[in-house]
Amino acid sequence: MAVISPLVEMRNIFKSFGGIHAVEDVSVSVRPGEVLGIVGHNGAGKSTLIKILSGAYPMDSGEIRINNSAVSINNPRDAKLYGIETLYQHLALADNLDSVANLFLGREILTRVGTLDKEAMLRRAREVISRVNPNFEKFSEPVLRLSGGQRQSIAIARALYFNAKVLIMDEPTAALGPKESAMFKKLVLRLKSEGIGMFMISHDLHDVFDISDRITVMAGGRTVGTCRTDETTKDQILSMIILGNETEAQTAEDTAPALH
């Protein structure tokens, strides 16, 4: 059996704000077609860790590796160049613009004379959004009028169109109803089959257990432990969150899925 190398590794990451250690010696990784759930109380360091990977915060020390090579991520543009896209809880959409404009916001397609190529953008928007949500039709509606699931479809489609290899998801089902949450989980399975690696921050353990392959628990800016989802229980993860101690659940930070 061959070990699958990580798409992304964050090694021994430290980040402080005014002397407060927000992230202290944290190491996580994600592999192709894998979802790593990151859980913990508010203030555990989850969002800070992910913002370092997305380029929103500089780390104080540590190392980020992409496909086994050390890289520097100093801003969101750097992250995007390495195929790292972020799906924030608020989705970072411009409410007054339609889905096509949001998809290409800041990265518009232009004609030879420098004007917006609206026809090309609409055509490509239809292609990529239908890949995410085959039932999506409201291309000309301001996104303010769309449902939570439709808005999320645009945000995910934007990441995929720009060749995301790693997708960071911050509370991805928080604004979704039961039907849209079920659609999202099916979408994650498709993305996994395409080899996309995903980090998922969530307070909903049901979603984490439904979607993730491994779960990392954080507390007080540090890693409590990482477990394979199919080898642990919600009660064990809750105990790790509440007590800040690792249970008897088998840790798996260095245990890679195997190719059979």
Give the arrangement of secondary structure elements.
Layout: E1 2-3, E2 8-17, E3 20-30, E4 35-39, H1 46-54, E5 61-66, E6 69-71, H2 76-81, E7 84-87, H3 99-103, H4 118-132, H5 148-161, E8 166-170, H6 178-193, E9 197-201, H7 205-211, E10 214-219, E11 222-228, H8 234-243, E12 258-259
Helix pairs in contact: 4-5
Fraction of helical residues: 25-40%
Rg: 19 Å
Distance between the termini: 6 Å
Strand content: 25-35%
Order of helices and strands: EEEEHEEHEHHHEHEHEEHE
Which shape, going by the Cα principal axes?
A: globular
CATH superfamily of the largest domain: P-loop containing nucleotide triphosphate hydrolases
Uncertain ranges: 248-260
The strand line-up of the biggest sheet is 7-8-9-4-10-11
Fill in the CATH topology of the largest domain. Answer: Rossmann fold
Total domain modules: 2
Q: Tell me the structural class.
A: alpha/beta
Count of helical stretches: 8
Which CATH class of the largest domain applies here? Answer: Alpha Beta
Mean pLDDT equals: 88
Number of strands: 12
Strand count, sense and barrel status of the largest sheet are: 6 strands, mixed
The CATH architecture designation of the largest domain is 3-Layer(aba) Sandwich
Tell me which oligomeric state these chains represent. single chain
